[in-house]
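Q: Could you predict the 3D structure of UPF0301 protein GGQ96_000031?
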Amino acid sequence: MKDADYLVGQFLLAMPGMGDPRFDKAVIALCGHDAKGAIGIGLGAVVGGIGFHALLEQLDIPVGQAPDAPVHFGGPVEIRRGFVVHSTDWTGQDTIDVAGRWRLSGTVDILRAIADGTGPRDWVCALGYAGWGAGQLDEELTSAGWFTAPGDPALIWSTPAAERWTRGYEGAGIDPRLLVAGAGHA
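A: Sure. Here are the predicted structure tokens for UPF0301 protein GGQ96_000031:
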């Protein structure tokens, strides 16, 4: 596979009836994809019962200027591990640039920066991630489980989580109401 075929900086949108309830109407920001595998952060669903303030308090970080934003379900892998998908105006220890569209940070320095008002302008916090081994995502893309959509950062920063799946399809020119579960047979 050529580098141009990898999907870093794009979105994976779950197709109706994909078969895995953990990914029902999932919107995954692909932050890494190469011959070794893929990693993405789910941005289509929030975790009930925990906000950003509670997360900071659990880590003994003073809330400071941080808004009490929802925490997203990043994916089923390492659900106790936190990640922040954020705008490109901030970088810290181990921050990864994602195709110049957004950045991904997974260390407490970004949480402290958000709390003290020196963090990125735009950000979304998530627990867990979606991960695929070598060739696994590429194989899944040949079935009717996932749709790839352009990586427009506005889908993250300007769209509420509950609307991202629908708007992701609409941004690709597809009316999601017309999608059906399963594939047809000729």
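Q: Anything worth pointing out?
A: Residues 161-171 form the longest helix (11 residues).
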